[in-house]
Amino acid sequence: SVPLSFFGGIGGASKQGILIKGGNYMEALAAVDTVVFDKTGTLTRGVFQVAEIRPVGMAEKELLELAALAESWSDHPISRSLKEAYGGELDRSRVGEAEELSGRGVRVQVDGRSVCAGNRKLMEEMGVSCSESAAAGTERSAGTIVHIAVDGAYAGHIIIADRPKPDAGEAVARLKERGIRTVMLTGDSRAAGEGAARELGIDQVCTELMPADKVDKVEELLGQEPKRGRLAFVGDGINDAPVLSRADVGIAMGALGSDAAIEAADVVLMDDKPSKLDIAIRISRKTIVIVK
Ligand code: ADP
Ligand code: MG
């Protein structure tokens, strides 16, 4: 039988916008000693602003329009920002077959041409070599780079910048005060990932990961000796449902998260604030002490 005070703890948490799906997850939360965060949309706002447009052989406006058209079917935060930066109406009749390649970008037919928009990994996969200026930009910039190719030819890139959520640094600091190790996993570039980790005070960061690599990383952390406490993974739900279910406690952001992620998660932070995690741990630890 479930001790009554678990209900008290779960009720208290829900008043703070923290949904805990059972007493067993409270116990796990109380024993967490490693928190693994996804970056985009979890620690960062997931709202990118276009910082620079660098076309090759076309006008800036044309490259932005092409990118926005290519991204017209995607719900990824990067896609939303490109469409917003373009601003105008998009004629979706120009867009044919579209494919989202998770952790990499999109491949879409636009005006009968094959357009790819995404990271360096996607370009490599498509056999497109990024120009030298693009390579230099990638190394220098802490922003996220969206490369664009048309019919296999490099067409330039757009640099977009995301910012940490206002409470992200504080959220990490509170966990560290509790002696909890913090890790960040991201599919983003090394420059963007390491820059964000440094700014937030994250202990350990792994970049350029595919969604499946994130599962491997979590398994590696779970398997580390000596055996530690429990591991929590916090994600925004965009292609991280498999990691959410693999962690001891899978935590999803509620407002941004997809239904699939909310389903796969053990805990949901309704208002998308990473600082709610420390509150969830505090409530769980208190409740566990009462139960015992
Ligand atoms: P994170 O791991 O930070 O949460 P994702 O796994 O969602 O990020 O995406 C990883 C990387 O894949 C992004 O940084 C971006 O380079 C690329 N990417 C994913 N989806 C798109 C898209 N729709 N358009 C362009 N690039 C994308
Ligand atoms: Mg993500």
TrEMBL record:
Top-rank taxon: Bacteria
Subcellular localization(s) per the UniProt record: Cell membrane
Family to which this protein belongs: Belongs to the cation transport ATPase (P-type) (TC 3.A.3) family. Type IB subfamily.
Name of the protein in its database record: Cd(2+)-exporting ATPase
Annotated source species: Acutalibacter muris
Lineage of the organism: Bacteria, Bacillati, Bacillota, Clostridia, Eubacteriales
